[in-house]
Give the backbone structure.
Amino acid sequence: MTIVLGLQWGDEGKGKILDVMAAEADWVLRAQGGNNAGHTVEIGKEKYVLHLVPSGILRSDVSCLIAGGAVVDPSGLVKEIEGLTQRKIRTRGRLHLAAQAHLVLPHHRAVDQGSEKRRGHGKIGTTGRGIGPAYSDKAIRVGLRAGELALPPAELARRLRERVTAHNRVARSQGWEKISATQTVREMAQAAKFLRPYLADGVTLAHRAVASGKRILIEGAQGTFLDVDHGTYPFVTSSHCTAGGACTGTGVPPTAIQRVVGVLKAYTTRVGGGPFVTEDGTLGHLLHGMGREFGSTTGRARRCGWFDAVLVRRAVQLNGVTEMAITNLDGLDGLEKIPVCVGYRLKGKILSEPPVESSDWAKCRPIYRVFEGWCEPTTEARHWRDLPRKARIYLSAIAGLVGAPLGIISVGAGREQTFRHG
Ligand code: IMP
């Protein structure tokens, strides 16, 4: 079994790598997160942006599970499934929704958006999809789970009304929008009818797949430094985006994992607030000018910076990465000099590990080692040997600095623009 996850702040190109790897998989399990994620996959001229549905859905012989560690906006999922159906992608019998997954309800979105407004300059820059409040209801044990969509409609309506009433009781004082219980009940009743055939016991399904020797990929969403425990807290999402989260989210034990593929960009990006030591406006300008680095969920321009080896080295440790998949190498094709951050400077000290506090992290200054750019396109490369020598030097140096072997290299959005190292 293989975990595929992000080693930076999300948007590393996991969707594309998962799609390529799914050619040799029977199941893809989405472990955590919700429709804050946006996994983009391009197949020929067709472009798909998946938010909740695992990328394996684009391979007709692969089964998919949205596992219990994910949070599901029922109406969002219905829309996503309908969009796939319109594009002739079959989901019935192939896509399963774990009854254990918690629901993201309209009042969660109201809390997310209202709280962000209140934070003003200190805002986290969330996607506004209600992810944090849904996970927080789960943690304080008042959340509704996907399995409850199968309840008799009157009982589902009663439980929904109870949650909306509790929200409305404090909404005004907190600066949250009030929510109509009647509308919530109506919307959820419709979604429940649609989603009931997809419901399953996620843990039993996953374990049956393991027991019958199926080839399984676990899809992580977001990235290591958005993990609620290990990220740049509080500028994080509310789930566990690291390898441990892949196990709790799916109910598959750590002993069943043989391989952890860490996906990363050849440079760094992040969306939303929070520390970013190697951020560089000039690089951002260049990449945005090429039409790159706009968020697939919110359309926001991503913040851009140089490769940060301090950050990725920590991600390799946290996740037990067995190989790396480096994407977006072609984004650096036109550059004469390419800096890589090999250490941080903070209050006169040199750090080789990131500090605990985000406020200290934000004060760190990068120590760069500068590599020579290759100044030629890499997009036509189909083998490691096709890459310019300077690009091979750059990639090998990165692998050495972070302590994990190179596995897959990606030089464009297409399936064919992907090859193995060596
Ligand atoms: P939330 O997950 O919507 O609560 O947002 C919390 C932080 O995670 C914000 O900085 C978001 O921009 C970021 N974030 C959430 N999902 C993704 C993703 O899929 N890619 C990149 N950043 C994300």
Observations:
- The mean pLDDT is 96.
- The first strand starts at residue 2 and ends at 6.
